[in-house]
Structure formats: structure tokens, C-alpha cells
Amino acid sequence: DMTKKLYPVTGMHCAACAGNVEKIVRKQEGVENASVNLAAATLAVTYNPDIVSPQQLKEAVMKIGFDLIIDE
Ligand code: 9UX
Fold first, then answer.
1. What is the pLDDT of residues 45-68, one digit of tens each?
2. pLDDT tens digits, 3-14
3. Cα 7-17-45 angle, rounded to 5 deg
4. Contacts of 19 (CB under 8 A, 6+ apart)
5. Residue by residue, what is the 3-state secondary structure of 1-36?
6. Which atom of ligand 1 is nearest to the CA of 15?
7. Which residues contact 49 (CB under 8 A, 6 or more apart)?
């Protein structure tokens, strides 16, 4: 089953940053959708937890210079 989570994102300064975070998260296997709210500095992500973990999403986001604050 898909799960939907909301995570804080740090390091974003403009709309292009937000677009880049969305793009990298959407590229991960097991992610159905990803939507960044720049003003709120959050990522809403719908994914299959049997395929991808929050830690893997965090690592993908860190690779492009931002961070995802996960609590697990
Ligand atoms: Mo915007 Mo983000 O000009 O790394 S793309 S600041």
C-alpha cells in the first residue's frame, strides 16, 4: 500500500530549488508522487514503503544539496 508523509526540507531558497527536490524524489523507485511547498519548506510524498524508505529519500535529497528531516 502507498503511504503519504510530510517532511521538512532544509536548504531551499527559490522555486527552482523546490522543483529540483520534487524531481529527484519523483525519480526514486517506489515514489508515486512528490510535491514541495517552498513557503512551508515541506515535502509531501506518496510512496510504497515496501520499495523505498524515508532514509533512501533523504539520501537522494542530500545528494543534490538539500536535506530532508525524517524522524525514523
Ligand atoms: Mo534557486 Mo536553489 O536560484 O539551490 S535553485 S537558490
1. 999 999 999 999 999 999 999 999
2. 999 999 999 999
3. 30
4. 36
5. CCEEEEEEEECCCCHHHHHHHHHHHHCCCCEEEEEE
6. 1
7. 3, 30
Nearest CA to ligand 1 atom 1: 14
Mean of per-residue pLDDT scores for the chain: 97
Q: What is the pTM of this model?
A: 0.95
CA distance 9 to 34: 12
Amino acid at 41: A
Q: Pull the grid cell for residue 31.
A: 515514489
Please indicate whether residue 15, judged by its CB atom, sits closer than 6 Å to ligand 1: no
